[in-house]
Amino acid sequence: MSVTSPATSAPVASSRFQGRGALLGAGLVILALLPLLTGASPYMLGLLISALILSGLALSWALLGNLGGMVSFGHAAFFGVGSYASALLAAKLGVPVLLAIPLGGVVATLSSIAMLPALRLSGPYFALAILAYAQIFRILATELDWLTGGAAGLQRYPGLPTLFGIDLADRAGSYVVVLACVVLFAVVYVLLRKSHVGTALRAIAESEDATRVVGVNATLLKSWMLFLSAFIAGVFGALNAHIIGFLEPDYAFSGVWSVMPIIAAVFGGYRSVLGPIFGAVVIYLFDQVIAKSLIPVGHQILLGIVLAIMVLLAPNGLAGLVRRFFTKGQFNKTSEKSHAGA
Amino acid sequence: MVRKMIASATLAIALTAGATGAKAQDAGKPEAQTFTIGAHMPLTGTLARSGQAFNEGMQVAVKMCNAISPKYQVKIDLIDDESTPAKAVSAVEKLAADGSVAIIGGYGSNIIGPASDASDKLGKVYITAGAVSDELTKRGLKTFFRINNNAGYERGIATLIGDLKPQKVSIIASTKEAPALLAEGLEKDLEAKGIKVTVHKFDPAITDFKPIINKIKLQDKPDIIMMSAYENDYVGIIRAAKVLKPNVKLMVGTWSLATPKMYTEFPDLMNNVVGTSFLPFPVEVKSEEGKKFAEVYKQTYNKDIEYLSTLSFVETMVLCEAIFRAAEDGSLEKGGLAEQMRKTDRDSLLGRIQFDATGDNPNFSLSMGQHRDGKIVLVSPKSAANGEVVYPGLPW
Lengths: 342, 396
What we know:
The structure holds two protein chains of two kinds. Chain A is mostly helical. Helix content of chain A is 77%, strand content 1%. Chain A is built from 15 helices and two strands. In chain A, strands 1-2 form a two-stranded antiparallel ribbon. In chain A, α3 packs across α4 (97-113), α3 packs across α12 and α12 crosses α13 (274-294). Helix content of chain B is 46%, strand content 19%. In chain B, α2 crosses α12 (307-328) and α7 packs across α8. Chain B is globular. Chain B starts with a helix and ends in a 16-residue tail after the last strand. Chain A binds chain B through residues 41-43, 46-47, 50, 139, 142, 150-153, 155-156, 171, 240, 244-246, 248, 250-251, 256, 288, 292, 296-298, 300, and chain B through 43-44, 79-80, 84-87, 89-90, 93-94, 97, 109-110, 113-114, 117, 122, 133, 135-136, 138-139, 174-177, 179-181, 203.
């Protein structure tokens, strides 16, 4: 009989876990590339692009909620600012689109500085404050017509470019760009969660007062999370703007960009990294492909029913369901082994 | 009994022979070729009513086109775009993949812009009657066409106001895209005619217009209040004006105002109010096509033709005719539809339809109709008028 000490078993378990995680990640990326490999139609790729943009936004919302303990009802603000900033930089200053997109994220981050006073609030008060900020940005975009084109919006600005002979404006090209961004930010989120900062942030989400007592600068860490979340939302707003090719205040700052990421993240399981991503893809495709083919007009009712069932039966979302399924499998295997040993 | 059996057998043989004969006759007749026209409309959400009205006009046009064309037939494949640009783009891609030869667009420049871009990339002709932004025709798309535009609405309103020769006009304009554009254009037009114009923009979320009307009453003191807005806004503005009674001579608005529906729902607010229109009410249609449209529309939907359904009727007729022409000369499958669309030159309920190099209809101009005790009298331009404008004339 060999006995493994806890000191040696922990790194082994961790490296095994990391190996499994990397394998899972690689598998998911291959799965995500399948539509390209199987020659999916522009229509299907278009749906996937929209779903992935929602995934990115849901990821940024979940990051703020999971790591900062802040529930946002105003992510449309960052999404809209990022989209306008990128479109204007590309159209008026001639900034290359692939540079304008991260710069759109930077401008969204800068805009989030205006929300720092709201960090003193928590719960529904923070949620309402950030909702008000989203409205302010929408009105600003309408009123600053010399810059934003006002209510008429912007229509003539560059789309995604051709890079190394690959037309990124093409459906397949846009899909790869958006997918790459989702993977990149998911990796950032995973690394952040695993770091000491991530541990502190999760502790803040559980009890801010307790973490302050042990010397964690909660306000500073929450600010960083707000900036990161705004950056991610801004980048996806910018991507959407260059893919769609049209911007107006009512669309760029639409309440849909605040509500849909919440639904997607809750559906997928906002406490995990993959939950919001898959939640967005599943609900978008379910709504547009399955529900719409069953009920062409008013199909949203089916989505509502599915959401309600999901929230009632699996409050931790898809991620919780999958975890429960695997834990059950492991439990069965362990009990089989112990029975065999007996 | 035997006699009955013989009679039954004779009848059965006769029927079988008849059916066979009919089949043989059908087989001899060349089968009509059917083309699918894709359409995306807002069928749910706040713009659902507009989408439905557009759909009704389209369906009547298809019925009428098919009735007069034995060789070619058309059918509509309709998708709800949910007033979302990404979903409108997906709809266009799906319709094209499913074999639509052309696309009829929905409502709003924010939807039409990306959707027509996608259609252009797929090489499909795209026509709309629901987007007036000038930017749409500046993109240089070869497959984009529209029958109405901001300039047409502007021309109609500016002609009426110019003829009335007021000294001051106050414009109350929603910050939504189309009304904001119209207000901007009208301000320039009217100022060029020597009229002093003040514009009051309002957020579409506003429902209480008393502060704006009060400002107009005490500060602007105009002769005419012009409303560049939508149905709910008109009601709010006129209601506020009825309470505060500014010393004005006329209330003028734009689309969806001079309609029988508005008078039926708000009879206390509509009398003497003027809005854009192309037909008087009770409907008096002079052209054969217009009479037929009104008749089929009444049969199908049990109501009189209305503004949006007339727009979509005209655009669908224009598209169907171009499809038939392209099919006839064998260029439909080879991208010849856009060329046939450019050859369009016909009269319609909206006047003469032609398309310039940008795909715009340069002849589009609307008349102005005034509510008069449940009727709508066309009062401007003089060439289309069937009555004199009541000026001063107010609902209170």
